[in-house]
Design brief:
Layout lengths: L4 E3 L2 H12 L3 E9 L2 E8 L5 E7 L4 E3 L9 H11 L2 E3 L24 E6 L11 E7 L2 E8 L7 H5 L4 H8 L7 H16 L5 H29 L3 H22 L8 E2 L2 E2 L7 H25 L1 H7 L7 H6 L4 H5 L8 H5 L18 H22 L21 E8 L4 E8 L5 E7 L6 H8 L7 H8 L3 H4 L2
Parallel strand pairs: 1-4, 5-6
Antiparallel strand pairs: 2-3, 3-4, 7-8, 8-9, 10-11, 12-13, 13-14
Amino acid sequence: MNWPHSSVGREAWQAAAARLHAGEQCLLGLWGEPGCVHMAVLQSASRECSMLSLPCADNRYPSVGRVHPPAMRLERAARDLYGLEPEGLGDARPWLRHGGAYPFLPAEGESLHQIPVGPVHAGIIEPGHFRFTASGETVVRLEQRLGYAHKGVESLMAGASIERVAALAGRVSGDSTVAFALAYAHAVEAALAVQPPPRAVWLRAVMAELERLANHLGDIGAVCNDAALSVMHAQCGWLREQVLRAAQACFGHRLMMDRVIPGGVLSDLPADGEQMLSALVGFIRKQFPDLVEVYDNTASLKDRTVGTGILSSALAQQFAAGGFVGRASGRHFDARRTPGYAPYDRLPFEIPVVQAGDVNARVWIRIREVEQSLALIESILPQIAPGPIHAPLAAPSAAGAREGIALVEGFRGDILAWVRIGADGAVARCHLRDPSWFQWPLLEAAIEGNIVADFPLCNKSFNCSYSGHDL
């Protein structure tokens, strides 16, 4: 189902920005195209989603970021990509264009020093520059400069076939390939009024939960490794490997890339697929509780994670932080429930939420979500009935362009997808918004007042995507 979509004037656009500032709405996305800017919002009370578009005849529009800070980076990116100038935006620095020196924001005080880190890092990690201002070992300010992984995805998508854009969507952030492909598929299906077959819907959910399992298991181990508990890293990595092997055996790819497509799925389960997945769930159920006990009863580990990198509930709400980042700071939101989509509307599951907002809380949310994903897979498998796995897409229409928009829950949080399909059947425009757009700025806030040595721990507890952010 598509969301309400209104083309508005400047006054209505500014009124929407005022509602964001007042907390009556949450920002889901802000993006541009030549001569027009778009915004997707979630009503805080009714939990309904909608989309606004503002034509920009002179390539100018009233800034949303002027009154609602979560929009600032989105507006800076839209300016770099499409030349749309946000009037009143306080930060005029380019976001994606890396020519020349970048003027980091100043910090005043006695005995302050700066520590530049990146964009090239010591490990196998994507590029990003972190500029610390510190007083001794205490971080006074952190500012990020990202955009190094910008690859022109939206330009590559414009004018491409639906199938080609599906492949690009699945490569926006490789660790979330199922979630991005699913968000794009939902948007295309909404635009074309296509209903995927029931078997495909259930298989998509299996893949999504396998992806969630693999990433949460990897993250739990990685956080522990940054706190010098390497045994947890090894054990969680071993469990993650079992998930990836099961994905390979059941869907033909360890990350399940290119398996979710508009209209359904590309690969069906083999004859023994359900048995393999049941065995995987049973294996993890047996092994995982011992690892949770190690985490919970290792005093030196808890000394590093409890009270470190606290993100306030107020900031999580203001930035509409999704996934474990938001839920660890009290924000009760999961796109599988709101706005919701099949088959999760027929599945019982809990959305774990805690209030502490520290590294420990973000680990515990992951732990609880591993447990929920195992239960969901157990619930899904008996309901996968025989049948087709793909429905044909509608032929091009002389009626003109058609649009679709969707919100899907990835392991990091909600992913927004918007697509416009032209009368020729090609994708005229597509925009995909990663959860990290609203999480990277919160990492800056969470690290303030912590010591520099705790940044890797805080950073891994957020695990924001560089690639997904730097379209």
